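Posting here for the record, re: zinc ion.
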Amino acid sequence: MYFECINCNTCVDADITMSVCADCSYPLTISHKGNLASQSASPTVTLGEGGTKVIHLSKVAKLVGISKIYAKLENCNPTGSFKDRGSAALISAIKSAGIKSIVEDSSGNAGASVAAYSAATGIEAHIFVPENAPKAKIDQILVYGATVHKIPGPRDNAEKQAKQFVVEKQLFYASHNISPHFLDGTKSFGREVVGGFGAEMPDHIIIPVGNGSLLISTHLVLKELRLSGHIEKLPKLYAIQSDAIKPIVRELNGIEWRFNPNKTTSADGIASTNPPRIKQIIQAIKESKGDSISVTEDSIKRYRKILAQSEGIFMEPTSAVAFAGLETLVKNETIDARESVLIPITGSGLKSTTPI
Ligand SMILES: [Zn+2]
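Prediction output follows.
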């Protein structure tokens, strides 16, 4: 197995102690060069993640005015979010390296997921979270027995403090945002989509994006499967963000945006002001001919309620961001009424105590 740096086009032998490029510090990606249809080995640590169902949302499709909306129920993963796909791969690699204690920083879902897989493997986990992360997410991490470090300020402060703790305590930094193993684990989402839809792939895939692991891995796996002849065309990929925190919209569309600590979002799962893999996010959007837009807090709230009350889907506000984005993309005719859309329900409603 190799690690590849897409920023400076270098390739090195895979090494669990390396997550970023030694030359340019960009997060590494597992390379499947020379074996394009290859799948990574099944994780040795599993809690039954993946294999999530896809359902058709006829009422929301009618409301928005398009042919078909499919939802992939990632909220049904073991800890209630798609992050379990990445955690299974990450903790499997950590276990096989004999590492006993790890440090992770997270807005909540990845922290809970890493805590669960660590608990099942007997690994001690320190999880750094923003102080204002939803109580339900922090409680979930605590129940799994991890040590929670609550850090004041924006999401990025938790990352800084985690890195400092790693140096001070000489522990392993198991950051899901930069880990090549975590990113590779989330590819199972894209493989399942291709396996389920076959030649009838949806025209568009709309994802709420913070640090972008699901968007990037979906793009990588779709490209691999197109090259190997499993699919003909790439669905267009969209990264939807909140109006409050939109570094990807800024990077892609050249708009003015600066982080304002007084402007918050209910979409806490994507509140990343400085995504480390932004280059891959932009590449995925451009190569698939998709886009990145942001949505209002009101529309996030509205779609969370609509999904629950018309389709019976209880999701966290972060997941509602994709539906709010879909509404805009249909209104501005980026998405045609005759086309089909796939949206992952990235996280369970039980993760958030935000009232409707
Ligand atoms: Zn590099």
